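Researcher: Following up on the earlier apo prediction. This time include the ligand. It's zinc ion, with the SMILES given after the sequence.
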Amino acid sequence: MRKILFVISVIMGLYSCSSVPITGRQQLSLVSDQEVLSLSLQQYGDYIKTAKKSTDKTATALVVKVGQKIAGAVEAYFKATGQEALIAGYQWEFNLIDDSQVNAFCMPGGKIVVYTGILPYTKDETGLAVVLGHEVGHAIAKHANERMSQQMIVQGVGTGVGALLSKGSSTLQTIGSTVYGLGTELGVMLPFNRKQELEADRLGLVLMAIAGYDPNAAIPFWERMSQQGGSNMELLSTHPSDATRIAEIRKEIPEAMEYYNSIWGKGATTNPAQNGKTSNDWHF
Ligand SMILES: [Zn+2]
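Model: Understood. Below is the ligand-bound prediction.
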């Protein structure tokens, strides 16, 4: 492992490195957005063809509504900070799938899937915003690119990274499928690492705040989730212990509240987004 980490650090020096929006963390980036988006769209297309869409119109409408607000927050943030290029090629889509798993995900490119099994835990619109903020957080932090890049390094040791980087490489395709895992029967994404999970939590709080949802709602949501126990779902994939996760979220809420207060006004109650404010009112 130590050797691999050393190789990664050398490669990071040689190849490109990018930084995560909002958190500013430097990350390994060996795979282009174009490559990731193309793999992602292909796998999403295969998945969604066979997935069973929920017939619950009210719940589906809520997923679309919250999804659109979180997507709106992403677009407003990237526009206001001059980083639109980072989400170029996104085609947002919001689905509620009839599946008892307590799960949700957002693929690179903005394809959002929520399983009906998570709705008893999200409970309401703001709870759903916690989940979608987190999932979209993974997407805008390009955690899939990062994980693919790390996989490439691991597999590239001894075989030469250059070969893996060549366009149309079958190894890249294989890595892509292991990264998303959507081609498998599991129908879920493979785990992100713990650091990425906590980062997605932080990004999720900021995104929900920009969208007009009170980020404090993340605490009761994660408390409800912790009561449902262990699971292989994406949201609990690397098992940051519930107590650690909630403690981290508590520390990060003030940052999200700064966005919330500056956009929606101090003391604003939940969902001021419904009260006629538009993205034109947003500044960062
Ligand atoms: Zn996650």
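Model: DSSP finds eleven helices and five strands in the chain.
Researcher: Noted. I'll compare it with the apo version next.
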